[in-house]
Structure formats: structure tokens, C-alpha cells
Amino acid sequence: MSILRTLSVFGLVSVALVSQAQMRDYTTKDKKAIKLYETGLEGMHIRKWDAAESDLRKAAGFDAHFVEPRFALAELYDMQGKDADAMKWYREALQLAPRFFPNAYLHLADIEFRNQEFSSAEQHYKAYLDLEDEPVRRARAKLGVDNCTFAERAIKQPVPFEPKNLGPLVNSPYGEYYPCVTADDATLLFTRDVPDDRSPWGHQEDFYVSTRGTDGNWTEAHPVPGVTTAANEGAGTLSPDGRFIIFTACAGVDGDYGSGRKGMGSCDLFISRRIGDRFGPPENLGPPVNSRNWESQPSLGSDGRTLYFVRGQQAQDGIKSMDIYVSSLQEDGTFSRPEKLPETINTPFQEESVQIHPDGRTLYFSSDGHPGFGGSDIYVSRRQDDGTWGPALNLGWPINTGGNENSLLVSADGRIAYFASDRPGGQGDLDLYSFELYPEARPQPVSYIKGRVSDKDTGKPIEADVMLYDLKEQRLATAAYSDPTTGEFLVCLPTERAYALNAGAEGYLFFSRNYDITGSGTAIRPYVLNIPMSPLQSGGSISLRNVFFASASAELLPESHLELDKVVRLLFVNPTVRLEVAGHTDDVGGEQDNLDLSQRRAAAVRDYLIAKGVAADRLEARGYGETKPIAPNDSEEGRAQNRRTEVKVL
Question: Is there a contact between 360 and 341 (Cβ–Cβ < 8 Å)?
Fold first, then answer.
């Protein structure tokens, strides 16, 4: 039994029983019964269960109308997990004295609910509501009524669910939880609770990582170098490419033992960047993300700039509330003031274990405040086209049960979900499992672009900022930095969109590529892309693959502005550079017509750049028509490559 549940039990009945005992105003006059009852109650509080049970049963046996020992026995059996006995004694006591302890209706209803006696539980939740005005417990009772209605229907409509243990190379006799996978489903990060004599609690949390082998199975997990320390780390999130980790450390203002990290008062979020195969020293994210409250369980969006996390804070009634917040990285490199997600997600109860899927629109989280099966259930909410969050939808039975479910993580393609469970048949404590998520609960499919950035002339790796823009919405969709030691990068690519990809690095012309996967309804084969970047020197050139014109026209389409603004910034940062804007066509149509069209298109691009403030004497426009193809004109794909706009450094 959890500590939380034990405390809630004492809060419902025994406090009232103690007050009653102090007043010496009992429902019996039998002194032997009263003495046995008081001795039994004392035994409960010092957890001498057998003696307490014996005394309370004797007290109840002396007088068939003595109510107090019957309520105490119900509580005692509930604390021991003996639900059948607890329900028997609650019902008997309430039948004798229906208004004696109104809170008992609430607790009896909770026991009945977790034993799937929904009709009886609903009746007793409503009985409590008829008797009590206390706002916190009334909210709990109202939720209980909704839970009964929901659970009775949902259990009759189970969803597909076949969990598979990830096996002994990942799981251990200790607890594994809070899984996180990269977008290519090749790296698994999770938290493990391990024994540690240095810790005042005798154990601590550390990060472990496993990678997929050539056979498709997870390899043996090992600690994460550079992040795992003698201190406590847990509940981490990886950027889609696995190069950044944001995690929780409860350092406190004086620092945590063995780590040298300092916090802002409680648990804080820290960030670390991986270079090569090792993470660098973690840094506290600082305000406004971190505060004197408790920040934990982060989830980083695939754009690398949107951070969801859980903040816990002490409420006025003494109950610790837990809500989901979101903050975004701003142009100046700082995070915005965190905003609490709306009531469609957050409730007056507790929300936790949040994951924003790489599609950027699907949020998975756990809550005990929405209609469900009791305890914490896993829900999904989808962001609407207007930016609002839709209703929280329960993932259903038997994914959710009467226990506490959390730590759900859904893969980028939306098919596979990972979660933690202590169900029978595991390696020991909490284990990590995977299962195929049924279609109705899946997010929008996400593919990814994976590649390497290098110098076009030398082949050496380059650290570049790789950015993916949504052409329809004219906004940055996702971004990542290539590794300075390998040049490798990975960016997510949600389907149903057309994208412009740009890569930029100091001293180089930027790289441009277009991806149109509108109409794709399923995850596609990932793109593999090598990006050779041209040094910013005379003769260097690039194709502007995201400059678009109306058909057979020199009219620039709005989707071109993102790319051309990149050229503007390039010229502003490098004020001595002069460019030639070159227009090219395929061989469809007359040669002279193609030459004229290419000249007009090159001039249109030059005019746009001048209108944005670039000096006219830094730009030349020239049309080449069909004279410089880069691919055969015998296919639509080849002709599309030949229809292009280029810029060349003069």
C-alpha cells in the first residue's frame, strides 16, 4: 500500500474517531466495550494490526449497536488491503448510523469502485454529496460519480492491448520508468532506481541508455556518461536527435551531494548537450522555467524549442497540486514565462507524466482528475487548428486499470507505445514494456530526415543549424544542430505538410532543399540526406529549392519568402558579398521563351531582395533558360530539378 493511500484513509475516518474518543461520547454505555475500542484504536495508530483487530472485534461483539468499532474495523481492513472485509464493516456501520460519519460513504464508494461495483459506488458517492459541503471532498465525490458512469461503460468495450516486456538487457530487479526514445526509435533513455549507500534514502535515480542492435532488439543498458552522477537524476527528455537532454535533479539551493549542482529551492530542470558520445556538464535552465516550486517530468517538442513539464506547488488547503505547463525558447535564447495548460487538460487534481509527441499536436499525460478507472489514468489531447487543446480522452481499458498508470511514451511513427508497470512476470520492480497502440489513440505520423553536414570541398564535418520550415504556415517547424565532431543531424518531419529545409553555418552559403509530403497518411521511409555546404567564397553557388513561381510566370509565390529572407540575412551579415541570381528552366517549350522566362524570374528575385534593403549594385540577375541542365529532361523528376533559381558568389 502506498503512503498516499494510507494518509487518505486516516484523513477520512480515524481523525473523526479520535475526536469522538476524546469527547467520551459513544454510541454505547458498555464500559468493557468502550475500553476495548479505545485500546484497539490506539493499536491502529501504532500499527499493531493483529491486536487492534482483536480488540475492535470484541468491542463490536459486546454491543450490536456500538458504531465506532465497526467504522474502525472498516478502516483497519482497508489499510491492510482487505477490501471485502472493509466493505462489510462499512456497510454494517452505515446501516446502523447513516449520518454518523458522512466521510465513510466516500471511502466505501472508493473501495467499491476499485472492485468494479459501480452501481453501489455511485449510490454511495451521491449519498456523501447529500450530507457534506466540504469543497475538496465534494469535488472528489462528483468525480467519483463520473468515474462510475465512464468505467462501467468502458470496461465493456476493451481496447487492443498486448504488452511485451523489454527484457533483461533493459529491465533489472530495480525499478525502470519514464522511458524516452529518439525519433528514429534507435536510442532508449530511461530512469532506473538503484541502491546507493551514499544516499540518505538508501537509493537514488540514475539515467540509463540502450540502443537497438542490428537484430532490432535493445542492447544492454548502461549509465549515461556525463549526466549520471552520485546525485539523483531522473525523468528526462531527449531532443528528437538525442543530442540534448533535459532532466530533473532535486539539488536545492545548497546543491546536491556529489554533483555540485545548485537549484532554486526544490527539484529543477537541467539541460546538457551531447558532443560525440558524451554529454557535457548540465546547466540549470533557471527562471522563469524553474522556480521555488517543484519542476519535473519534462517533454521537449520536436521543434527543439517548446518545453512541456510538470510543476508541483503547495495549495492553500495543504494539498500539493501538480499541473502541466509549457514554455517556448525565444529569439534571444531565453525561455518564455511558463503557461499552465487549459482546463481541458489540467484539473483541480493531479496531472503528471507528460509527453508531447513529435507531431507537435498530440499530448499524452496522466491524471486522476478526469473520468477514468480510479487512480491515475493515461489520456490523450489533440491541439486543434485554432491552437486550442481538445478534450482529454481516456486511452481505455485495459491500458488503464484501477491502479496508477503513467510514463507513457509513443514512438515517432505513432505505432509503438512504451510504459512502466509492476505487473506480474517482470524482472523485479517496475519494468518497461512496449505495445502496439490502437489506431484511434495514435498521433499524426512522423518521419524524419537524417544526414550529415560537411564541407563541400574537404568533406570535413560542420556544426550547422538545420531548420525545417512549414511552407503553408510560414513558420519554423523544427530545428537541430549537427554534431561538431561527426556532422550528423536528425530532424522530425510530420506528414501532411510541405517543408523547406535550410542548413546554415558561419562562413558558408546556406543549403536549401524542398520536401512535399502532403497527402501522406502514414509514416514514410525516412529521408537520408548528405548536406555538402559551399564555403562563402567567389564561385560558390547554391540552388534555392524553396523559391516558387506561378506556372509559366515570373510571379513569386508567398511560400518563397522564407527562403529569400535567408538570402537577405546572408547579405546583411556579409556586407562585401555580391551575388548573381540565375534563373533556369527545363526544355519544355521554345528555347527563346524559356530564356525570357528565366530572365524575368531572376529579375523578380533580385527585385524582392532590393525591396528588402539589399543594395542594387550587389546583385545581378541573369537568365540561362534551358542551357544548363543538372539532370536529364526525360522525366518529370529531372525537369523539376532543372527548373531552379540559383545564387552564385561573385
Answer: no
Separation between Cα atoms, residue 322 and residue 329, nearest integer Å: 23
Q: pTM for this one? A: 0.78
Geometric angle at alpha carbon 405, from 400 and 406, rounded to 5° = 130
Q: What are the residue ranges of CATH 1.25.40.10 in the chain? A: 3-154
Q: Kindly tell me if the per-residue pLDDT of 481 is higher than 90.
A: no
pLDDT digits (tens, 9 = 90+) for 270-311: 998 887 777 888 889 999 999 988 899 999 988 888 999 999
- 629 preceded by a cis bond (ω within 30 of 0): no
At the top level of CATH, the class of 547-650 is alpha beta
Is there a contact between 578 and 618 (Cβ–Cβ < 8 Å)? yes
Separation CA 47–CA 49 (nearest Å): 5
Q: Which of 611, 465, 615, 438 is nearest to 531 (CA)?
A: 465
Pairing type for strands 268-275 and 222-223 reads unpaired
CATH superfamily assigned to domain 445-535: Carboxypeptidase-like, regulatory domain (2.60.40.1120)
Indicate the SS3 state at residue 33.
Answer: helix
Residues, the chain: 650
pLDDT of residue 260: 56
Q: 22-27 — which CB contacts under 8 Å span 24+ positions?
A: 26/66, 26/68, 27/65, 27/66, 27/67, 27/68, 27/97, 27/100
Average pLDDT over residues 383-402: 92
Please name the amino acid found at residue 526: P
Whole-number percent of the chain with pLDDT over 90: 50
Fold of 174-441: Neuraminidase (2.120.10)
Q: How far apart are CA 492 and CA 563, in angstroms?
A: 20
- The predicted structure's pLDDT at residue 551: 86
Residue 603's Cβ-count burial label (10 Å; 0-12, 13-18, 19+) is middle
Cell numbers describing residue 168? 533483461
How far is Cα 183 from Cα 181, in angstroms, rounded to an integer?
7
Pairing state between β 511-516 and 475-481: unpaired
Residue 138 has pLDDT above 60, yes or no: yes
Segments in 10-158 forming alpha helices (H)? 15-23, 31-45, 49-62, 68-79, 83-96, 103-114, 118-131, 135-154
Instruction: Give me the CATH topology for the region 3-154.
Output: 1.25.40
CA geometry: angle 408, 414, 416, nearest 5 deg: 60
* Sign of the torsion angle spanned by Cα atoms 431, 436, 439, 443: positive
Q: What is the mean pLDDT of the chain?
A: 86
Identify the bridge partners of residue 202 per DSSP, sorted by sequence position: none
State pLDDT tens for residues 244-278. Answer: 889 888 765 555 544 556 777 678 899 988 877 77
Q: What is the DSSP letter of 524?
A: P
